[in-house]
Design brief:
The chain is of the alpha+beta class and about 140 residues long. It has 3 helices and 4 strands, in the order H-E-E-H-E-E-H. The protein has a 4-stranded antiparallel beta sheet with strand order 2-1-3-4, sandwiched between helices. The longest helix is centred in the C-terminal third of the chain and has 26 residues, at about 100-125. It comes from Eutreptiella gymnastica.
Length: about 140
């Protein structure tokens, strides 16, 4: 709801059914990015574009970006962030487990924010976002 410009689509019901065929880690970020790509591909006018990335905090104290399934399974904590393309702020997040401290959590958010720039770059190449496609004209 925060992404689709609902005033342009007042009687439209949008529902995503995500069917997982293979989970090799970072499943939530892959699903969110796939849903965003579906909105852009459908040509719906969006207020922004979101890019999702996952991080995990390993048992040996390392922050891992885009963890695979084994890294996620063995992690102390895992977090997925969805960032707004315009403001670069967090739209949504989901955390499982417990980070060592707040500093580590916010360090993971900064790491995910930088990685979301790559997600946006790929979406820009694929769908022409930031050039008017999928984003309302002002």
């Amino acid at each position: 709801e925060a992404v689709v410009l609902s005033s342009v689509h007042p009687n439209t019901f949008i529902q995503f059914v995500v069917q997982v065929l293979n989970d090799d880690g970072s499943l939530l970020s892959a699903a969110l990015n796939g849903c965003m790509a579906a909105l852009l591909d459908a040509g719906l006018i969006c207020t922004t574009t979101l890019g999702a990335t996952c991080c995990c905090f390993s048992q040996d104290g390392q922050l891992l970006l885009d963890p695979d399934l084994a890294e996620e399974t063995n992690a102390v904590a895992t977090v997925c962030f969805a960032h707004d393309n315009k403001s670069k702020e967090v739209i949504a997040s989901l955390c499982t487990g417990l980070f060592a401290d707040d500093k580590t959590f916010w360090k993971s958010e900064q790491l995910a924010r930088k990685a979301s720039a790559q997600v946006f770059s790929i979406m820009k190449q694929a769908y022409g976002i930031l050039k008017g496609v999928g984003v309302p004209t002002q």
